[in-house]
Amino acid sequence: MFLVLCSGGICRLSAQAAGSAAVGATLAKANGDQAVSLKDASPDMKTETAAAADPASASAAADASASSSDDAHANPQAPEPNPGTVPPLAGPKAGFFTRWGQAYVADWHGNAPGTDPKLVSPRRGTPPPIFSPPFPATDWPIGGTILIGAPDTQTYPLMQAVNENKSREKWYGWVSIGANGSTNNRGHVPNVPANFPSAYDEYPNTIVLDQFAVYYERIPNEAQQDHFDWGWRIASLYGQDYRFTTSKGMLSQQLLVKGAQYGWDPVMFYLDFYLPHIGEGTNIRVGRYISLPDIEAQLAPNNYSYSHSILYTVDCYTQLGMNWTTKINKHWTVQGGISPGCDVMPWTTDAQVTGNVCVQFTWSNGGDALYTCDNTINKGKYAYNNLTAFYETWYHRINDHWHTDTEAWYQYMRDTPNMYWYNGTDPNTGIQYANTPQTPWPEATNYRPGDGAVNLNFGAICVDPRLPAAQQPAHCYAGEWAITNYVEHNFWKNQASLNIRNEVVDDIKGQRIGTPGIYEEHMVGFNFWAGSTVTFRPEVSFTRYYGKYDLRALNTAPGSAPAHLENGIPQTGKNYAVTLAADLIWHF
Predict the structure, then answer these.
(1) What per-residue confidence (pLDDT) applies to 108?
(2) How far apart are CA 7 and CA 5, in angstroms?
(3) Counting CB atoms within 10 angstroms of each CB, which of 12, 45, 69, 481 has the fewest?
(4) Helix, strand, coil abundance in the chain, percent, nearest 5
């Protein structure tokens, strides 16, 4: 979740998020569990699906044999490799690094390693609606679970070097490097994310190591209905984007105390238990996982684009607890879970018993899906990222080359402290108002007035900051709503895609972004793939702010505009921004 650290008049961005990704991983917070990419299909799979230009029509071939259980994930429009020109995969007698390098060369020539047929079962249910590559996943996202009915056929260059991808246990990951140029020019000020609320490219005019991610996992076989199975995932992240995965109480001092630009976070650690005879299959996940809703996910390969929507940037990211998912039939899947809340560990003072409930309904042979969630069920009172949130997401496949995703949410916190008392000066003391029930502060690491407190979580701009203290409430209700739409087009034999994102976010009291008002964003970008192991994602975005009280929210430290207004300091920000950005992801 987004945080701003303020000390000595300088604010530093931080955020919480956690996610996961694999080469063909699911693009939402399902963390890659149901994803299969083009390279995962064996040559037999590709042959059997070559006639199925429409992925939704590939179900018969997909169920033909265990070796072709996920052939609909393969790209039926991809050219078959020419045995006379494609370099073969290195044999087991070659050296480790030779095998690793040959895996990349073969992948780039259309001869990526296939999955051992003995490790997979036939796919159940509807066929995948879209292709991966170029999209992050072949199935519509569903969080907190593996996609029940879909086999795991992921292969990786590293595992090809280790054991020719012949085990259920897998090590893999990626390195992503990002850069941007922006009309925002405050990035030269230390620790000021002047591109915010744009996320993952929040520091303007920079080149950064976004993510170095390593995964170790065993995915249970949830395509079969014969026997109990279990698995795990342990995911580690180092880079600038750790700020979007940090959870309070889990090594969070790197960000919340030190404000380090780069850090390390154990993004996920959980166990999956598969019960095949409850419904059409049931998954029980226990550990730290990604909160269930959202089109997007925190780690780089799980997203259409380099940057993230504002909608995604300011909602709940991770939870530590238990989640239950039961597939009732090919149309209905139900979920329920319990956790200590969003982005907090159970041993923190912010933790409270929190439930979540989600329902997914699919139709049109898997081409459409509605995903409805109540993601945080508790008292809804102000605490660290304690967002009561209601989500609706619609995924729609238009045809072979076009699809669209639309997400909307409303979220709130009750009894949110008025930022007036944190930002203002007590005329009786000449320093900040003290943190009292009548003049409460938002959550901070230092409650000594005037002594460099660090704000961990925004309060609310309850009323006009220019009003006198006598007209300022102690607390107020802070709500916000948002809607985001993606339009996606695959082309260039499914080795490229066009990504169009449009969104509107109304941060009514400024509790999520720091400055109240309406934000709109429009982004156009592309994904270009080399095989299934290298991804380049350029984009250009335009952000516009429509503010209250003559505030200017962009090209400034988040949350500083209301503070300046309250204290008579002229507004120095802007109401628009244009950003050109790109990242390069190298999978291993």
Answers:
(1) 96
(2) 7
(3) 481
(4) 15, 35, 50
Cα of first residue to Cα of last residue in the chain, in angstroms, is: 28
3-class secondary-structure state, position 86:
coil
Higher pLDDT, 436 or 73: 436
Name the one residue in this structure whose structure tokens are 């008392």.
Answer: 421
The model's pTM = 0.85
**Contact between 413 and 427 (Cβ < 8 Å):** no
Q: 422 is written with which tokens?
A: 């944190």
- Report the amino acid identity of residue 531: G
127/405 Cα distance (integer angstroms): 18
155 DSSP assignment? -
| Contact status, residue 296 vs residue 308, Cβ threshold 8 Å | yes
Phi, psi dihedral angles at 233 (to 5 degrees): -145, 135
Residue whose structure tokens are 């209601």 = 390
Closest CA to 277 of 330, 337, 335, 224: 224
pLDDT at position 201 over 70: yes
Mean pLDDT (the chain, rounded): 85
CA distance 21 to 235: 9
- Whole-angstrom distance, CA of residue 366 vs CA of residue 331: 8
pLDDT at 77 (0 to 100) = 38
Distance CA 289, CA 17 (A): 10
Show Cβ contacts of residue 369 under 8 Å, excluding neighbours closer than 6 positions: 140, 360, 361, 362, 363, 394, 395
Q: What is the pLDDT of residues 106-155, one digit of tens each?
A: 999 988 888 888 888 999 999 999 999 999 999 999 999 999 999 998 89
Distances (CA, A) of 172 to 21, 138, 209, 533, 587: 10, 19, 18, 11, 8
> Which among 200, 184, 76 is positioned nearest to 138, based on CA atoms?
76
CB 208 within 8 A of CB 200: no
